[in-house]
């Protein structure tokens, strides 16, 4: 928190594939019980200095809060870093270079990011990986099944949960999110 009462920014400059890139820093709790993985940040989020500031990503984060993964930000806020960290949940992206669309990412960048994020998640022994959209699931597991817990786990044994799409009917969203609320992974039997 800054002296003026506004939340601190999470902008940082990192070396991405040999070049400096202004992006968002990862949020890593000391002992993560889950990490939310996005494909990459958007310029809007980087400008705001906070993860997932787009309308669709905000909808997804609110669904996770309503499922009990963490609490909602106070007073209808849109900055989730503090509440996820308080719940031992982290935030990271596969690709560190911000773009306004997935089509602006090269396969080489995605593969480079896949290796890096897998190494970070495995080193921290993250037990649950939550993907806001389907693409990070495909990147991490090689394919993405239906929304919900995926039938495959990561190489270190983490469960992977794919969020329902932001425009899925409410009754379908409720069913999928109930599995997350109750911790019912459909993996391993």
Write a structural description.
This is TDG/mug DNA glycosylase family protein. It is a single chain. With 189 residues, the protein is an alpha/beta fold. It has a domain at 11-131: Uracil-DNA glycosylase-like domain (Uracil-DNA Glycosylase, subunit E). The protein is built from six helices and seven strands; from the N terminus they run βββαααβαβαββα. The strands form two sheets. Strands 4-3-5-7-6 form a five-stranded mixed β-sheet, with helices on both faces. Strand 1 and strand 2 form a beta hairpin. It is globular, with a radius of gyration of 16 Å.
Distance between the termini: 45 Å
Question: Helix tally?
Answer: 6
The CATH topology label of the domain at 11-131 is: Uracil-DNA Glycosylase, subunit E
Give me the secondary-structure category.
Answer: alpha/beta
> Residue ranges: pLDDT <50 for 5 or more in a row?
1-6
Query: What is the radius of gyration?
Result: 16 Å
Assign the CATH architecture of the domain at 11-131.
Answer: 3-Layer(aba) Sandwich
Q: What is the strand tally? A: 7
Let me know the largest β-sheet: 5 strands, mixed
Strand content: 15-25%
Strand order of the largest sheet: 4-3-5-7-6
- CATH homologous superfamily heading of the domain at 11-131: Uracil-DNA glycosylase-like domain
Instruction: Classify the helix fraction into a percent range.
Output: 25-40%
* Whole-number mean pLDDT: 91
């Amino acid at each position: 928190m800054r002296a003026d009462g506004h939340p601190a920014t999470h902008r940082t400059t990192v070396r991405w594939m040999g070049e400096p890139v202004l992006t968002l820093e990862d949020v890593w709790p000391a002992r993560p019980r889950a990490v939310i993985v996005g494909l990459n940040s958007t310029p809007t989020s980087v400008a705001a200095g906070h993860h997932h500031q787009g309308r669709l990503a905000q909808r997804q984060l609110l669904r996770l809060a309503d499922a009990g993964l963490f609490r909602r930000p106070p007073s209808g806020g849109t900055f989730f870093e503090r509440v996820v960290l308080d719940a031992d949940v982290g935030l990271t992206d596969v690709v560190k270079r911000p773009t306004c669309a997935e089509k602006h990412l090269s396969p080489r960048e995605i593969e480079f990011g896949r290796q890096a994020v897998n190494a970070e998640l495995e080193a921290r022994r993250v037990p649950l990986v939550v993907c806001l959209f389907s693409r990070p699931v495909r990147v991490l597991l090689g394919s993405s099944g239906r929304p919900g817990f995926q039938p495959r786990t990561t190489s270190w044994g983490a469960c992977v949960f794919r969020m329902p799409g932001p425009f899925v009917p409410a009754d379908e969203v409720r069913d999928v999110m109930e599995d997350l609320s109750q911790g019912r992974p459909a993996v391993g039997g």
